[in-house]
Request: fold
Amino acid sequence: MNPSCRTTLTQFLIEERRRFPHASGDFNSLVLNVALACKSIARQVALGALGGGADGGAVNVQGETQHGLDVAGNRTFLEFNEWGGNLAGMASEEMAEPYQIPPCYPKGNYLLLFDPLDGSSNIDVNVAVGSIFSVLRAPGGAAAVAAADFLQAGATQVAAGYAIYGPATMLVLSVGNGVHGFTLDQALGEFMLTHPALAIPAATREFAINASNSRFWETPVKRYVDECLAGRSGVRGKDFNMRWIASLVAEAHRILMRGGVFLYPCDSRNPDVQGRLRLLYEANPVGFLVEQAGGRASTGRRPLLDVAPSALHQRIGLVFGAREEVDRIERYHHDAHPADLPSPLFHEHGLFRAPA
Ligand code: MN
Ligand code: MN
Reply:
């Protein structure tokens, strides 16, 4: 194919917008600003050790040591998006509180949530990292934002996506009409549509889980993994491969490209913390993409995108990918005796929430 015949991200967004004749165009410029931030971060990441300043030294709101690029990526997202007039506020993995749009800029009706650099511990070994983002409507319009404004179930996302900084830089995006992958043409500086209408096969022979946590797993997760490991001789009757990159973006990307199932379940390690991944700017955007690609995303017990968030930096158990596998994992949780599951009182489907 002649590369000049490819659709650019800009053209894609304009054609999508034509489906909504009354749309203002604010949304498109928001996505293009996010894409520009990702192109800038791709350049910073590509410098590797030449970029200097690997050690951010500080500890973020999550209690994690910040890489220099965590801090730089966060600043990049803020600076490329604060001026556009389409946002009421932003929230980031790297900031305890929501970011207010500076008074010198107009405000808009959207909220942007992001993990500016996901998997940053992989940078020093030159393994793919990424940025994840989620777009919500601002419930209070253009007023000052509070954390509560961001506490919306994943199903309400207007758009979600990630950039992956691998051998190629890609942007994978959903505006609620399927999932589409764009590859950065470095010479043009444009994301070109290369992977339209991504679809996750319903069945798979690949699973991804951090097996070093197996002693903390709940019974349904142990059962699921044991059955995968038993392979052809077990109840599944087929052999499985295991994959683990320890970078959510890279795991999600592999599953969108060729299928599979990913688990980072709740476990018994710390009863006060449910799961590892952050609901609002990691799990929800990935879940939105996966469901838009025909897969499923779950807490292990119920659909992820139905979860009503309770805190900006809330963590959650996450299972996503091939529909049949996620269905099976949920079924194993529902089959399990409640005594097998830790802290039901404080669980996301516990006493204080209606049953799913
Ligand atoms: Mn992350
Ligand atoms: Mn991060």
